[in-house]
UniProtKB/TrEMBL annotation:
It is found in: Cytoplasm. It comes from Pseudonocardia endophytica. This is Histidine--tRNA ligase. Gene3D superfamilies: Anticodon-binding domain, Bira Bifunctional Protein, Domain 2. Residues 1-31 are annotated as: Disordered. Keywords: Aminoacyl-tRNA synthetase, ATP-binding, Cytoplasm, Ligase, Nucleotide-binding, Protein biosynthesis. The keyword Protein biosynthesis applies. Homodimer. Belongs to the class-II aminoacyl-tRNA synthetase family.
Length: 436
């Protein structure tokens, strides 16, 4: 390394308290309007299907993820933010939501209050990944989990809820890939079969090692040589137990009934170890290599693995950051970046006193209002009004007060009309109604 690269690397490592940690997207106005709209639209689809909201810890005991997500996964072995707290407990910033939800359901005996337990969540998750467009160290998900009923109709519901969220946003350039990862009955035999197939291949040592830990991972190796070698590999969907095959067929039937299109992907491999039976991913082709906008599936053994009753589960996690990017790629923007609808422009102290009250009156009627503070002149205040995204400005000077009026300015047409100061709240409401 040259001295210059040395110095650059050094600088990159030096802490800079004025820079956000690497790989963390921040959402500021006006763009944050898109972020909250995407998150809330996805969550609303879950709410409409009866998923109650849970707010869970952002960090948990490290053992929860080691046991729940699986020690052989990249998420657990390489990507966790794990540290000892001041009481010397090993804790980890949550890399995903399912393990925490299941832990909470067990801890609070939620399953005793009727099944299935249907929960939704939204918030940040943390994975120490190599940052790039669409791959972050703090990522945002909206997720659902339906616990305690092993019914293919529930798998289909979970998938349909995710699909409905994407549809409501106006997205169309994505597809649902689906497969079955079988159950305890068929998986061990299939694993042995695949391992036997892999043993006959000329694989490099790192790939052999991967195969030893989890042979299924080799199925989605992207390298052309490995892909070619895996062409005739046995696939789990062809070796499902009759119960798993039946379950899978029913899920697909329900999806057909619901009009949710899907593409079978028998080589799908998920980054988390708990999946059984139904497993799916929503893939958006406009996003390059980070194309997974959401994923999930069934995890029938997880509850027991974590020390709870033997109950099944199914759920999804949708990446809010990537879904927002997908909206950008498709040019859909079903939200407004306007902070407010109305902006008050007071010219003088008395005008400010009046407009502060008018703003409060409008807000109490549900209108979003801001005003110019700090005694700014007309030009500066109008600039703020424009920046706020407001449709109307209320311009008030001493002469207007004397005349008992206020100027209602349409910031799109530029037209300004005087309206009575006393009744201006109703006038503004009517004007907002007129422009829709
Ligand atoms: P996951 O596939 O690991 O599943 O993550 C779900 C979604 O989160 C991904 O499809 C992707 O959109 C987003 N995502 C994951 N990692 C990143 C990242 N580094 N940067 C940006 N976005 C990311 C789970 O987490 C499971 N808990 C889902 C689930 C719920 N399965 C059953 N229930």
């Amino acid at each position: 390394m040259s001295a210059a690269t040395d110095e650059r690397a050094d600088r990159a490592r030096r802490p800079d308290p004025l820079a956000a940690p690497k790989g963390i997207p921040e959402y500021l106005p006006p763009e944050s309007a898109g972020f909250t709209h995407v998150r809330d639209t996805l969550a609303a689809a879950a709410e409409r299907a009866g998923y109650g909201y849970v707010e869970l810890p952002v960090f948990e005991e490290t053992a929860l993820y080691a046991r729940g997500v699986g020690e052989s996964t990249d998420v657990v072995s390489k990507e966790m933010y794990t540290f000892a707290d001041r009481g010397e407990r090993s804790v980890t910033l949550r890399p995903e939501g399912t393990a925490g939800v299941v832990r909470s359901v067990i801890e609070h005996n939620v399953d005793k209050q009727g099944l299935p337990v249907k929960l939704r969540y939204a918030g940040p998750f943390f994975r120490y990944e190599r940052p790039q467009a669409g791959r972050y160290r703090q990522l945002q998900q909206v997720g659902v989990e339906a616990i305690g009923v092993d019914d293919p109709a529930l798998d289909a519901e979970v998938i349909a809820v995710a699909d409905e969220g994407f549809q409501r946003l106006g997205l169309s350039g994505y597809r649902l890939e689906i497969t079955s990862l079988g159950d305890d009955e068929c998986r061990p035999a299939y694993r042995a079969l695949l391992q036997e197939y892999l043993a006959g291949l000329d694989l490099d040592e790192p790939t052999r090692e991967r195969a030893r830990i989890n042979p299924l991972r080799v199925l989605d190796d992207k390298r052309p040589a490995v892909r070619a070698a895996m062409e005739n590999a046995p696939l789990l969907v062809d070796h499902l137990s009759s119960a798993s095959a039946e379950h899978h067929a029913r899920v697909l039937e329900y999806l057909d009934d619901l009009g949710v299109a899907y593409t079978p992907n028998p080589r799908m491999v998920r980054g988390l170890d708990y999946y059984t039976k139904t497993t799916f991913e929503f893939v958006h082709d406009g996003l390059g290599s980070q194309s997974g906008i959401g994923g999930g599936g069934r995890y029938d053994g997880l509850m027991e693995t974590l020390g709870g009753p033997s109950l099944s589960g199914v759920g999804f996690g949708i990446g809010v950051d990537r879904t927002l990017m997908a909206c950008g790629v498709e040019g859909v923007r079903p939200w407004s970046e306007a902070r407010v609808e109305v902006f008050g422009v007071p010219l003088g102290d008395e005008a400010k006193r009046r407009l502060v009250s008018v703003a409060a009156g409008l807000r109490s009627r549900g209108v979003r209002v801001d005003l110019s503070y700090g005694g700014r002149g007309l030009k500066g205040a109008m600039k703020s009004a424009d920046r706020s995204g407001a449709r109307f400005a209320l311009v008030l000077g001493d002469r207007d007060i004397e005349a008992g009026t206020v100027g209602l300015k349409d910031l799109v047409s530029g037209e300004q009309t005087p309206v009575a100061l006393d009744t201006c709240v109703d006038e503004v409401l009517a004007a907002l109604d007129r422009v829709g």
